[in-house]
Design goal:
Elements lengths: L4 H4 L15 E8 L5 H9 L3 E5 L6 E9 L2 E7 L11 H12 L4 E7 L3 H13 L4 E6 L1 H6 L2 E3 L1 H8 L3 E3 L8 H13 L12 H18 L5 H10 L2 H11 L7 H16 L5 H19 L3 E3 L3 H13 L5 H44 L4 H39 L2 H14 L6 H10 L1 H7 L6 H10 L9 H13 L6 H28 L21 H36 L1 E2 L2 E2 H15 L4 H9 L7 H9 L11 H10 L4 H12 L5 H11 L2 H29 L1
Parallel strand pairs: 1-4, 1-5, 5-6, 6-8
Antiparallel strand pairs: 2-3, 3-4, 7-9, 10-11
Length: about 700
């Protein structure tokens, strides 16, 4: 989760997390993705939470405070994971926190509608020796699907507390807090133990006494024996760091491991075969635990979900429906953002007039007024008025699709083409996030396990247009194509969808090229859960998308737009030899820009629009009209007249849209890439790839048109 007012506001620090009257107990919240874990966390902690990053990682964490009577708890919302056999950064963090941070208790949140699958993680966490409480969430969904659960019997079989909750209803969460109290007060018990194949059990029995003697109670000896037999090198390094010595370098342990691995090899259990056998034992144990506990009266709802999936993920309708949905989202964004954007602009420019009056009353120098009000403030006002309304529509729509359960279906549909590009199907989700904001899409690449595939997604994310590039593309579509043929917003949405499909195709092409050159490799397998379709929590979606996405992204854009406004004003008002710096720069770029079907003013506008793509068109208009500040021209006929008078043709409009689609990412995105990759080299390559593609595409198109005319 991102930084929000809820997590950084006043109430977030009302109570110290480390200085309380009673000892603060650490409770970890674990669980598969899409089980409502974060909803449980938010409901228990309310405003008393804060966020940051795990030490040495870019993955966010969330910690919150709650109490139950005289007990005070620090809840840690660890990343969602399907297993402690970690592959991604998030899974490693979840595993390491549970295994090596020794929380006082671990609450494992499970989905009541698919309990068998979730118990796999429960059994692995029990093996670590942690005090476990099983929270069976989404009981309302289970009831709707006619699923009944005998949780008392499950508790008896597991040997740990099992509590049912509906995270949306805070009343049910008091039982969870009571169960945590009970578990922490109770003496240590012997919970359910997974039994593996006979050769593995024999190896465990041989290693456990030796490991107990070497590590004592620092780690569960049975769990440690399993991990050493697995030969998971990164995990063994974490174990060595935690213990202060490497067990695999101890002579006695080396000899014992060698003997047991030889015995396992004789049974055909080495490498992947050994791990597969362990996974099968975990899954069969989970299934056995659920026999008689989970009862389904009928499978009507599951069948309905399957029927829907046959349509939404089928070869015949899957891709057409995705395109129609994309068209609808863009049409709604275009149609819905116009009026709020105008209202916001009117309000912000009304404030500008009041600021001008204030400067006049204070007898401030004209240059100071122009630099701060007509430079800095006007650019900020333009960015906010153009950027916020579309984001306020697009991000909630995106989050609603995520909440309903459709986004995993999109990843499923696009998994095959991305795999053909030697990439990961999860890149489809990060690409979709890029439509709202490329910086958000880059951050979203954390969900991709493989570092190589994560880099592929990061480097190509800006090939799809973000919210900041929509105004330029939509304006030019409307002025030169839709308006000239008397089209409507539906026509604009169709043309915009075609432009975006070009960006998607470029993403596939560049991903394939990179995977065959500097980022060679084969695609890795990944677990993709198709969660059940659910009714969206509209209120939560609106708050989450506005605070965590729209305003957060807008804040970063504003922080770089302010200095850009001052720079633009200086270039438009400082003259050398009777000509402004802006005009000098445009003239210098003009010969090269003509080869691309543009002119120097357009190329200069893109360069000065580096902090925020929203201001490219206003800068171009300002330069054409020789104004000293950004101007607000909203009438398409007036804009068309200005462009035509300055030599624009339909080819110029197409090349400008093409370069808007493919050029360097904005400063916010590049800064995010630097933070996510930790490398200036990858940041520079992420800027170079789309820019080269845009320059070449514009040059080729211009040359072809000039040859044919």
């Amino acid at each position: 989760m991102g930084l929000t007012r809820r997590s950084t506001g006043k109430r977030a620090i009302d109570r110290s997390f480390t200085a309380t009257d009673d000892p603060m107990l650490n409770v970890a919240l674990a669980g598969n993705p899409n089980v409502g874990k974060s909803t449980v966390f938010n409901a228990l902690t309310g405003m008393k939470q804060h966020t940051g990053n795990w030490s040495g990682k870019t993955v966010a964490n969330a910690r919150g405070y709650c109490e139950n009577g005289t007990r005070h708890y620090m809840l840690v919302d660890i990343p969602g994971t399907y297993s402690l056999m970690a592959h991604s950064a998030e899974e490693e963090i979840a595993r390491n926190y549970i295994c090596f941070s020794h929380p006082d208790a671990v609450v494992v949140v499970c989905d009541a509608t698919c309990l068998e699958r979730n118990l796999n993680l429960v059994l692995q966490i029990i093996e670590t020796g942690a005090r476990v409480i099983v929270c069976v969430n989404l009981m309302d969904e289970a009831k709707r699907k006619h699923i009944t659960l005998d949780l008392a019997e499950l508790q008896r079989r597991l040997g740990v507390p099992v509590v049912s909750t509906v995270a949306r209803s805070k009343k049910t969460l008091s039982r969870l807090l009571d169960a945590i109290d009970t578990q922490l007060n109770a003496p240590a018990s012997t919970p359910y133990t997974v039994r593996y194949a006979a050769p593995i059990e024999q190896a465990i029995d041989a290693l456990t006494p030796l490991l107990t003697d070497k590590v004592g109670t620092a780690l569960n000896a049975r769990w440690l024996a399993l991990r050493l037999l697995e030969r998971d090198t990164p995990l063994q390094q974490e174990i060595a760091a935690f213990l202060g010595f490497d067990p695999t370098e101890d002579p006695a342990i080396i000899a014992a491991l060698a003997r047991q691995r030889t015995c396992l090899a004789q049974e055909g259990m080495t490498g992947g075969a050994l791990r597969d056998s362990m996974v099968r034992s975990l899954m069969s144990s989970a299934q056995a635990l659920c026999e008689g506990v989970v009862r389904r009266k009928n499978a009507v709802d599951d069948n309905i979900d399957r029927r829907i999936d046959r349509v939404l993920t089928g070869r015949l309708f899957g891709y057409p429906l995705m395109l129609l949905l994309l068209l609808f989202v863009f049409w709604l964004t275009i149609e819905g953002a116009n009026l709020p954007s105008q209202w916001l602009a009117d309000g912000l420019f009304w404030i500008q007039d009041r600021l001008s009056e204030l400067f006049h009353l204070l007898h401030a120098p004209t240059w100071l007024h122009d630099a701060l009000v007509l430079g800095v403030y006007r650019v900020l006002a333009w960015v906010v008025s153009v950027m916020l309304p579309p984001m306020a529509i697009f991000f909630p729509l995106f989050t609603l699709l995520e909440d309903v359960g459709y986004l995993p279906r999109i990843a499923y549909n696009l998994d095959r083409p991305f795999c053909r590009c030697n990439a990961c199907g999860k890149q489809a989700l990060t690409m979709c996030m890029g439509f709202g904001c490329n910086a958000a899409g880059v951050v979203g690449c954390r969900i991709i396990d493989s570092p190589r595939e994560r880099l592929l997604a990061v480097l190509t994310n800006s090939l799809v247009p973000c919210n900041g590039r929509f105004p330029t593309i939509i304006s030019l579509l409307t002025i030169f194509f839709v308006g000239s043929i008397g089209g409507s917003s539906i026509t604009a949405a169709l043309l915009l969808t075609a432009v975006i499909l070009l960006g998607v195709l470029a993403t596939f092409g560049c991903t394939w090229l990179l995977s065959k050159t500097i980022l060679r490799g084969t695609p890795t397998a990944f677990t993709l859960e198709l969660p059940p379709y659910r009714r969206p929590q509209i209120g939560r979606v609106l708050v989450h998308s506005m605070l965590d996405r729209s305003l957060f992204v807008l804040g970063r854009a504003v922080s770089v737009a302010a200095p850009a406004g001052l720079l633009i004003w200086l270039m438009a008002n400082v003259s050398v030899g009777g000509t402004t710096l802006l005009a000098h720069g445009s003239a210098l770029l003009d010969p090269f820009a003509r080869l691309m079907g543009l002119d120097g003013v357009i190329l200069m506008a893109f360069i000065l629009g580096f902090p925020a793509n929203e201001i490219v068109m206003p800068i171009a208009l300002m330069a054409y009209l020789a104004q000293g500040s950004l101007i607000d021209v909203t009438d398409i006929h007036q804009m068309q007249a200005i462009f035509v008078e300055n030599g624009w043709t339909p080819l110029t409009a197409v090349c400008t849209m093409l370069f808007s689609l493919f050029h360097w990412p904005c400063s916010t995105t590049l800064i995010t890439i630097k933070k996510e990759t930790g490398s200036v080299k990858w940041m520079m390559l992420a800027a170079l790839i789309p820019t080269l593609l845009g320059v070449l595409a514009c040059m080729v198109l211009t040359a072809l048109v000039r040859m044919l005319t």
